[in-house]
Amino acid sequence: DSIHLVAVQVNDYDALEAVSPEVAAWAVAQLYTSAVHYFADQVIPLPEVYTHSPREFLLLLPHIDSSDETDREMRDLLRAHLNTLSLSLPGKGQQAVACDLWSLPFRYAELARPDGDAEKLVDYMVAQAKQAFIFLPYVYRAHQHERSGAWHMALDQYRLAYRRTPDNLYLLRHMAKAQTQLGHYQEAINRWRQMLAEKKHPSYYRRLAQNLVALGTEESVIEARKEIDNAIAMDEHSAKSHAVAGSIYAIAGEPDLAIAELELAAAYDPTHAARYLLHVAGIHYDQGRYDEALDTCIMAQTHDPDDRDVPAMMMRAAWAMNRGAPLSP
Q1: Are 317 and 281 in contact (CB under 8 A)?
Q2: Strands 99-107 and 86-89, how do they pair?
Q3: 289 and 255 Cβ atoms separated by less than 8 Å
Q4: pLDDT tens-digit series, residues 191-231
Q5: What is the H or E stretch that residue 191 is in?
Q6: What is the pLDDT of residues 261-295, one digit of tens each?
Q7: Residue 146 and residue 181: Cα distance in Å, rounded?
Q8: pLDDT number for residue 45
Q9: Rounded to 5 degrees, what are φ and ψ at 104?
Q10: DSSP letter at 269?
Q11: What DSSP string runs through 215-233?
C-alpha cells in the first residue's frame, strides 16, 4: 500500500493577474474545495493551500490507494474535472484557469516512523512533496525539449527549477548534462565540482573527467587523469571508469596504458566488451600494429557478432597488413 500526494498546479496565471495575491489564493482554494468535493469518496483532504510565490500555488490532495492503475484513473478524472472549472473573480466575472496534476507516491514501508506519530508523518510527506512539486513541471518540460534536441530550452527549464530548489543534485546533474551537449564544458565542469562538494560519487568524477578532456587543453587532460583515478579508487570494478581512463590515456599519447584500461573495461563488462575491444583495435591500428588490431577485432566479434563496426575495422587492418600501410579513410 502507498499514499499518493496529488498536487494541483495552476499553469495559466492570466486570469489571476489583475487581482491581489490574497484574492488569488482564495480563488485557487475554490478549485481545491471543488476537487475535494468531487472526489469526496476517494480523496482525504489536506487543509492547506501551499503558496510558493504570489502567483504559484500547489494544492496538496493526498489519497490512499494500493493500485497504481486506479491512481492513474483517478488523476485522469481529476485533471479532466479541473479543466472544466471556472472561477468567479471580483471585477472579472467567470474565468477559466488552466491547471495540471502531479503525483508523488510514498510507500508505507519507506515512511515508517518509530514514534508512530501520524501527524509528523503527514508533515514529512508534505515537506518532501513541496520540494518535488515545485520543480517537477519545469523538469517535465525540460525532458520534452531534450527529446526534441532543444538543449538550450531544456537548460533554461532546469535553471528555472534550480532557482526554486537550489542545491538539488538531480537538477545539477541534468544542467551539467545539457551544458555538455551544448559544448559549454567549463560550465559543466563547475556543476560537477559543485556536486562533488556535496557528495562523492564515481559517476560524478567520471563525468568531470570527460568534460575536462573535452575542454581540450593540456592542463585539463592532466587534471582529467587525476579525476578518473578518483573514480576508479571509489569503484575499481567499474567498466565505464576504466573505459574513460583508456580514452584519456589515448588522448595523452600513452597507447599501452590506454589498452590496459580498455581491456580491464572489457573484462568487467562482457556485455559491452566488443565496443571496448574495438577501441583497443583502433589504438593498435593507429600505432601500426595491424596484426594485433586484426586479432583484437576477431576477439570483439566473438563477443558481439552483430556489431557492424567490427567488420569495417577488420577490413582496414587486413588491408594494411597486406599493403604495409594504413587504408586511407
Answers
A1: yes
A2: unpaired
A3: no
A4: 999 999 999 999 999 999 999 999 999 999 999 999 999 99
A5: helix 185-198
A6: 999 999 999 999 999 999 999 999 999 999 999 99
A7: 10
A8: 41
A9: -130, 115
A10: -
A11: H--HHHHHHHHHHHHHHHH
Between 118-147 and 151-164, two packed helices, what is the crossing angle to 10 degrees? Answer: 160
**Which residue is listed with cell 597486406?**
322
243 CB-contact burial (10 Å; exposed 0-12 / middle 13-18 / buried 19+): buried
pTM above 0.70, yes or no: no
Q: How far apart are CA 121 and CA 246, in angstroms?
A: 49
Q: How many CB atoms lie within 10 A of CB 4?
A: 20
Q: What is the pLDDT of residues 33-77, one digit of tens each?
A: 555 555 444 444 433 444 444 444 455 555 444 455 555 665 666
What share of residues in the chain are helix, strand, coil (percent, to 5)? 65, 10, 20
- Residue 290 · residue 284 · CB < 8 Å: yes
CA distance 40 to 75: 14
How many other C-beta atoms can be found within 10 angstroms of the C-beta atom of residue 245?
Answer: 26
Q: Which long-range contacts (CB under 8 A, 24 or more apart) does 52-56 make?
A: 52/130, 52/134, 52/164, 54/21, 54/24, 55/10, 55/13, 55/16, 55/17, 55/21, 55/24, 56/9, 56/10
C-alpha span between 235 and 201 (Å, rounded) = 9
